[in-house]
């Protein structure tokens, strides 16, 4: 269902910080006319409402019919965006560069091409500093247009320099585009399918990667090319369950930022994302020392920069830090101690829920459920597993959907609900078949629970031992070990032996 104009406006107003609201009020009140007063009034009315009530707003906006109201909303939305731009231009180099481009166009249209060229030089320096190839090329193309139409006293050497620079930048942009496309397609594959499940998927991903990876001279790559390449390689190896290589390129990703500290400030989200994948690799490889030191670095970065973060960066930092904190307790196998993190995580989730995609929320609920289960609170675990099942996610993260149902069986077994185990096992089997995400571990786990409930309680310890031995074999299967990334079945079984 499309978002209405009113909903967009209301959501935008509710997203504003106190400083942004204050800035808008100052900006809007500079012009004291009847129209300004009306849209400021509309802003104040919406800002005061917890839930949108349009009839109440219309009642308080005197002499405003529905047609005028619609125009007023459009005008208010535009004015808020203009006021926000005035703030963000001081924080984001790309916004400032685009403003320079606008000024250049205006100066050129007035015949002041020498002034426009001087402004272009300033903008080019800013674009180079922020590693923004696309805007840098736009500036070069504008410069070429002016140089081709006027006698600017620029010599042939400079003209040659501009054209060569444009060609070089175009090549870099093409490489970056190919790499960013590759990164995005790999990411989309993972979101839909998770890790590779068999040799056929492995071969398909490998072939796709080889065909789409541009030929590059690694020594000559600029910063955007480096980061896009490392991101693509991280995703590639992550999907293939090759966490050793994934770890290598996650470290290179972070190192590239540290070697270009101005880019950390320009794109803190991408910098933190590098840490997220480094932590994920450390977690999977059992690299406890490296995990704890990397998490500490990420938390310090977040603490030192949180106040100047954008809302989006604050959300990103929450996702990666809180994900890292939960995984820390899983890595250390200190489940009960980890429960202290859950209320903090849930408070943030509630705050940002409307701004988070379902995948993120689902992963958090899954981890919370696992923490409760391993802390011997199966009832609480089921509460969060139910939350996952209520989510309308379609084919999103089919792997987690299956592991959720497996955890359901584990939780109900812990609660002694043996009478429904066979039903749960059959239901899980049906769902797994529908989602096309079946593997040996899933088959064996489903079969195990189906069989277990038919065995007398006194004899079940031996069955758990046999199942543990089966798991030992699967752990070293390249296509089965993916399950252990999400669900440490062996650890749960040890509590039954």
Polypeptide structure, described:
With 497 residues, this protein is an all-alpha fold. Among the domains are: 5-88, no CATH class; 93-154, no CATH class. 77% of the residues lie in helices and 0% in strands. It has helices at 5-15, 18-28, 34-48, 54-60, 66-88, 93-109, 113-129, 133-149, 156-193, 199-212, 223-239, 243-259, 261-266, 268-285, 288-305, 311-332, 335-338, 341-352, 358-374, 378-390, 398-414, 421-434, 440-452, 460-474, 482-486, 489-494. It is globular and about 90 Å long.
Short description:
With about 500 residues, the protein is mainly α. It is about 75% helix and about 0% strand.
Derived structural class = mainly alpha
**Oligomeric nature of the chains:** single chain
Count of beta strands:
0
Overall form: globular
Summarize the helices and strands and which ones pair or pack.
Layout: H1 5-15, H2 18-28, H3 34-48, H4 54-60, H5 66-88, H6 93-109, H7 113-129, H8 133-149, H9 156-193, H10 199-212, H11 223-239, H12 243-259, H13 261-266, H14 268-285, H15 288-305, H16 311-332, H17 335-338, H18 341-352, H19 358-374, H20 378-390, H21 398-414, H22 421-434, H23 440-452, H24 460-474, H25 482-486, H26 489-494
Helix pairs in contact: 1-5, 2-5, 3-5, 6-7, 6-8, 7-8, 8-9, 9-11, 11-12, 12-14, 14-15, 14-16, 15-16, 16-18, 16-19, 19-20, 19-21, 20-21, 21-22, 21-23, 22-23, 23-24
